[in-house]
Amino acid sequence: MQRQPDIDHGTASMTTTTPSPLGADNSRRQFLHRLGIGALVAGVAGFVAQSLRSLIPNVLYEPSQRFKVGLPGTLPEGMTFLEDRRLYVFKEGRSYFAISGACTHLGCTVKYTKLNQPKQVELSSGLATINHEFHCPCHGSKFYADGTNYAGPAPRPLRWYRLELSPDDGQLVADLGQEVDQGFRLTV
Amino acid sequence: MNFPQTLVDVWRRLTWTWQPQSEKESGDAVVKNLLLHWFPNKVSLSSISWSYSFWLGTVSFVLFLILCFTGLVLMFLYVPSVERAYGSVKDLEFVVSFGWLLRSMHRISAHLMVATVFLHMVRVFLTGAYKNGAAAGAQRPLNWIVGIMLLILTLLLSFTGYLLPWDQLAYWAITVGTNIASSAPLVGEATRFVLLGGTTIEQATLIRFYVLHVFFLPLGVFFLFAYHMWRVRKDGGLAAVDREDRSATPAPTVPVKSKTYSLLGITNGASVHVQTKGVEEEQASVSAVPHLLRRILVVAIVTTVLTIILSIIFTAPLEAPANPSVTPNPAKAPWYFLWLQEIVTVTTVSLGPVTINGALVGGILLPGLLVFLAVWWPYRDRSGLGSVGVWFAPERRRQNMVFLAICLLIILFTIIGTFLRGPYWNFYWPWESWPTTPVKF
User: Fold this and answer.
1) Cβ <8 Å between B358 and A153
2) pLDDT digits (tens, 9 = 90+) for A133-150
3) ipTM of this complex prediction, to 2 decimal places
């Protein structure tokens, strides 16, 4: 960059003991120039970063992953669908288990579909007769009664979640944060 | 006091910082006028022909303007809150005077815009208009990429738009859309979290999509559109002009002092960027004002009238309020996303023990591949200058075939998704009736 010598260059060199060559003056200007640009870039980057960071929530006002379902005895035999939580809770005699209603493909709510006649299928637990299945309305995935995917685009079985008994009032507690495998049963 | 004269003076003071004092200054004023620079001084007949471009780009922009105007009014009437969004849209339909028309026009122009932007892309491809012609410094491939970005922005605007009524369509579209995002490896879950503003679809989600819809995405379209148009002129106008130039018989000429037509011959000097032979020939070109302007106005009026008629015939539907526990059966995206819905349905693949979700293959990898192909294509296209601005140039037959095959496949999937899919996404012929499924159990 070509530059006319500054008027105050002479005075600057007068105050220093060694005459300042133009190069040294230039490098100081260059340094201040870079410092200025750098500060501007850092400032803008900081502003952008804090703006973006503010969009990532620190507190979620969402319902707890753990919630009470009710007293085990009050649940009807067979399936109960908890709409708000998209959770299918099953009662078979004294044992309980819960299967998620969220399709593992793209998260639509699968529908509990009663079969017209019982069907013999190979499940992970062995050969079993099932009376119902889960079908997804969005992309046509199909799951056996235990949530095993057998048709459509779903890549994996429906999730099973832990059930436990609340120590204070004996209610059934479902925990959507804790996935369990298909053999899980809570026996009361 | 001459009152009208005062009014004129006031108007002049408000609108002019300076008044021409001589003939020369009057000429400069014309040269410096932004509105007159919006267009070139002269345009070639081939580039304003109806049958070359079908004016699809202009139609798209007119639709964008209609969307801006109706959208601005809708912003006064719509409340982006989970509790009140559905109610405010319902009010638009049944309570607000002409609210139904506003909403319907907004929706129809959005649908039409998706269609015309797509068709515009098809036209540009089939005429080889993304190829550089003779103009120096032309960057038509770059402008094609800008066009692809505009198409993507148009789709994102539609997607964020149909979420706003907070009805069943909205809710399940966000569910599926954000789950597609979350299927991306590594960053997927984080992306979904940021998009939703949490882990569930709630108020934070609605306001995010709302701000994107009414501010960031339209702003993007506006700037990219401005750049798109500027590039068209810098790249030597429409590709049809290059075709014109080639077919014109070069007359033996002696070198003359050149001038730039865009400066009306007042200023000396020439710029290769704006010089083309064709437009300088009297028979091949006309003045932009009124000829180009008139056609633009005709296109704008016809588009607007058609939009209004269509919005009166096809009024905007409103589904039941968003209900997280009941997925509609079948749950269908709007028609322009149904090809994607069809693809994510059939692309779950199992490689031994590993199963890859169709959401990743059909929702991210395949569309990503299509965008990559589109961006890469103009640089791969090595056909000669003879196929610039020519419909179905013989030299480009094979690539036109491949491109059309991809387009037809997308259209075919769209048709299957729209007309041939019933409950549980099962296949039904149009004459087959769907089994009645309980809405709620």
Assistant:
1) yes
2) 999 888 889 999 889 998
3) 0.73
Please give the domain boundaries of chain B with CATH numbers for all domains.
38-425 (1.20.810.10)
Nearest 5°: phi and psi at B381?
A: -70, 110
DSSP state of B362: I
Question: In chain B, which residues have their Cβ closer than 8 Å to the Cβ of A107?
Answer: 175-176, 179
In one-letter notation, the amino acid at residue A81 is: F
Q: How confident is the model at residue B270 (pLDDT cuts 50, 70, 90)?
A: very low
Tell me, what amino acid is at B438? P
For the stretch B369-398, pLDDT in tens is 999 999 999 999 988 888 898 999 999 999
pLDDT tier at B333, thresholds 50, 70, 90 = confident
pLDDT of residue B275: 46
Nearest-10 Cα torsion for B56, B61, B66, B71: 130
Which residues in chain B (197-236) have CB-CB distances under 8 A to chain A? 197-200, 202, 204, 208
Average pLDDT over all residues of chain A? 85
Are the beta carbons of B36 and B289 closer than 8 angstroms?
A: yes
DSSP state, residue B46:
G
A172 vs B: CB within 8 A: no
Measured between alpha carbons, how far is residue B385 from residues B247, B328, B396 in Å?
12, 53, 11
In the structure encoding, which two tokens stand for residue B186, read together? 């590594």
3-state secondary structure string, B222-252? HHHHHHHHHHHHHCCCCHHHHHHHHHCCCCC
Query: Which candidate from B193, B200, B425 shows the least CB-CB separation from A138?
Result: B425
Q: Which residues contact B91 (CB under 8 A, 6 or more apart)?
A: B77, B99
pLDDT of residue A17: 54
Global pTM reads 0.83
The rounded distance, in Å, linking the Cα atoms of B370 and B358 is 16
Helices (H), B328-365: 335-346, 358-360
Q: Does the CB of A62 have a partner CB in chain B at under 8 Å? A: yes
- Whether residue A137 and residue B423 make contact (CB cut-off 8 A), yes or no, is yes
CA gap B318, B165 in Å, rounded: 8
Interface of A with B in 85-144 (CB under 8 A): 86, 104-109, 111-112, 135-140, 142
Work out the average pLDDT over B96-110: 95
Q: How far is CA B166 from CA A24, B87, B169, B207, B321, in A?
A: 66, 9, 8, 11, 6
When mean pLDDT is compared over B78-92, B245-259, B330-344, the highest value belongs to B78-92
Two structure tokens written together for B395: 């030299």
As a whole-number percent, the residues of chain B with pLDDT over 70 amount to 89
| Six token digits for residue B363 | 């929702």
